Amino acid sequence: MSSAANRLKEEGNTYFRDGDYKNAEMLYSKAIQQDSSNPKLFTNRAMARIQLRSFDACLDDCSRAINLDPKDIMKPFFLLAQAQLALRHPNEALQSALTAYEECLKINSPSTRAVCSLVLQAKKEKWEVRERERVRARNELFRDLEIMLREHAQEEMKMLREAVDEEENEESRQRVERKVEELQSLFAIADQEGMAKRTVPDWMIDNISFAVMHDPVITKTGNSYERSTLFEHLRRSPTDPLTREPLTVDELRPNLALKEACELFLRENGWAVDW
Fold this sequence. Notes:
This protein is mainly alpha-helical. Helices cover 69% and strands 3% of the residues. The chain contains eleven helices and three strands, in the order αααααααααββαβα. It has a three-stranded antiparallel β-sheet with strand order 2-1-3. A hairpin with a 5-residue loop joins strand 1 and strand 2. The relative contact order is 0.06.
């Protein structure tokens, strides 16, 4: 980095620490004019733009930083995921956050816990999109069923008018109306659970795979993980994924209370396996 670019970057860092993100962005931009080959300048400007809620511009800076240095991508992907979430692109945000998380584990980064929280947020927002679509589809189904019931009732009434006198026709009409109302009530009661918002508690989620836990184990620091994913992680790095403290398989214990709670939740909410 040229001396002029470095000076501008340091001035921008001072403004950033003071919470003056507009001037920080301006100085990072001037530094980029002096040296557009330095990925850290784009990452710094992306940080300022996140604070300024200039999310589209942040996407561009993150992409530039990643392209300039494909070996140092944890922070730009972390920022990229935040911008994508803010722009309501949870699918893309989840992929970016997972990439940042994998990089955190490789370099044993102190940002692992923050990145882990971002992955969970992205996964939750992705789930929310699916849930809104599911509820919308069920609402359309109820609407279609009601139309079908009404049409069936009208056909039945037409047949009754041709076959019976007026008094019997009115009694039959009332029976049909009651039948329609009863069926509608039955459908509504039966599908109350299906129409309700479905969420998976945070305590059920493994902080490595971000899936529902089935066989949790607990570490000496009190963190719980899915057994298989933690074993796989320990083969690569003998550390706790969140605290980064040394950790071995012998120090793990089954978390029986959590396992029982997970099993109970899954028995009552079978849909959660798809989370």
